[in-house]
């Protein structure tokens, strides 16, 4: 028995020795690896080459955005062959769910992730220091101001602006003609309502697609036009501002005049579009792709005009909706390579033009927007130069502080629209109540 | 084995960990570990979490602040109210329907009873998400089948998902469709236990169908009906999918459930501490209702 125990002890010693040896071999190898890396860096530095970037980069993105990054990775590899990519295709909600758990635990984060611009502030504020800074890499004059505002948290730029969503009024030229309405005559919302009545009377078609309870889009775009938002520059709620009340009252009027088509979801809106239920839809530039995909038989019937203003003499501000940004979590082991790739995709004119032509990603990088492709007329839109129009609108979109509470504020705002429109509540009272609730919930 | 333990000293004893006394614990060990990791730890952690506030990437202790906010949160009260509306309207309707279907399916003259039973039970095997999406399409105001049929019959369509009571009715109809079959099967099990002699003697006495139903069937399945109502009540309190997919909690939070609000607070607004406080409020409510029902059940048995 005694012998048996001794034998076991010896065995353990042996095992320990083997393990230690293995550990040493591994650590030595790691040292060697590190050394080699340094040497290579020095070599390439003197040679002036760009071969110093290496490592494996995992990218989380969705749909066409991922497809675009994938095609750009091939171009990037021509310059930096040592960088390996690993693309993971997920839905928008999937990205958020995974990011939430990974940021909480600090494990399993990707090297590059795409996020919706409006959500970036929430991620930046709730998880400070978890995203790489781009403040010194980025030239601020090269991007739409609104997109930079989305990427800036506490004065630091922690993401790269990608596609943008300046908004215009999409309208059906054939229906306008049938109702004898001229788009040039519509400058203000009052004009729009008058035209809407005419439209309903002559064709029976509703003028505008506006959600009654599931979305606050028309109200939110009006707010931005008036230079206001849910929050002021410091991020304090200001939903009972005069501008906000004005916008909400206009939404109520549109509804009361019985010229709106209600949609409770995106699918409703698309079905309504294909069955000629409405003539106008206020949405961002990326809607171009959705219209082409959703109603291919309406080719040539669509046009775009700027959103109507509140008063003819006002300097109209632009409104924006959607568009994403690219961020690099600090947990990334190859943050340098990841940041370089992000900059490469976002600040390369060809990359931006390709993304637009192949995937309909409308960039926020101004030098790219100067390219010829954005000046061309689009046959689907009766050869109208729609993208030029969107670029001009994009430049006038004011900077907005979305704050980390945007998601909750959006939900509350939808409910206010529902109260005003469906329950016939007074806009001022509803917005005052909303302001109070926001102050108690978001106040620090 | 036994020989060794007999002649061995303390060392030998130690070597034999598996004895009659320890064996149950050793066999249970994996389950205990799993239970501790996936049940006990989250329960304690979320309780602690409910006293903390998450901001700026760190959790800070904030006392009972979350619970104070909770009591003043209009959406919390609204979600509570909605849940109780579902409870009060839907549970009785469903229990009565299950009893009705149960009795009808069990009638002796019925042919192909198994087929009917399967038909009634089928809705509860459909995936929650799939059925919620289908109902969303059915209740669509402009293009939905329900309104199409109403209009074909000469009624005006209902704006189901955009009016307060329309949306609530849509949810109640959907839950009833989904769960009635499940409860019917339980009721049928209860009906099968009723001795046929009771019906036979009632027939000899000249009792009508309704008399038999009211004075034999209902009293005999009373405890089953109670069980069905308890499980349905707990199920309703934990409702999530229907509110999340079918109505999105709208319009103006008229259909949001506590479960849905809890999800939004935690995973959309990133207020993890507050979400934990909400979940404990739900625990307390379910606890109170269960105690009440437990007491009522005991009364029923006596």
What does this structure look like?
- The complex is a heterodimer of chains A (444) and B (302).
- By secondary structure, chain A is of the alpha/beta class.
- Chain A is built from 17 helices and 12 strands.
- Chain A has 2 domains: 55-164 and 322-374, Periplasmic binding protein-like II (D-Maltodextrin-Binding Protein, domain 2); 167-319 and 405-442, D-Maltodextrin-Binding Protein, domain 2 (3-Layer(aba) Sandwich), CATH 3.40.190.10.
- Chain A is 51% helix and 12% strand.
- In chain A, strands 2-1-3-12-6 form a 5-stranded mixed sheet, sandwiched between helices. A 5-stranded mixed sheet of chain A has the order 9-8-10-7-11. A two-stranded antiparallel sheet of chain A has the order 4-5.
- Chain A is globular and about 65 Å long.
- Chain B is mainly α and 302 residues long.
- Chain B folds into 2 domains: 1-37, no CATH class; 74-301, MetI-like (MetI-like fold, Orthogonal Bundle).
- Chain B contains 15 helices and 2 strands.
- In chain B, strands 1-2 form a two-stranded antiparallel sheet.
- Chain B is globular.
- Mean pLDDT of chain B is 87; it is low at 1-9.
- The A-B interface holds A 96-97, 100, 122, 125-130, 212-214, 262, 264-265, 268, 271-272, 277, 404-405, 407-408, 411, 414-415, 418-419, 422-423, 437, 440-441 and B 54-57, 69, 72-74, 136, 140-143, 159, 161-164, 248, 250-253, 264, 267-270.
Question: What's the short story on this structure?
Answer:
Chain A has 444 residues and is an alpha/beta fold. Chain A is built from 17 helices and 12 strands. Chain A has a 5-stranded mixed beta sheet with strand order 2-1-3-12-6, sandwiched between helices. Chain A has a 5-stranded mixed beta sheet with strand order 9-8-10-7-11. A two-stranded antiparallel ribbon of chain A has the order 4-5.
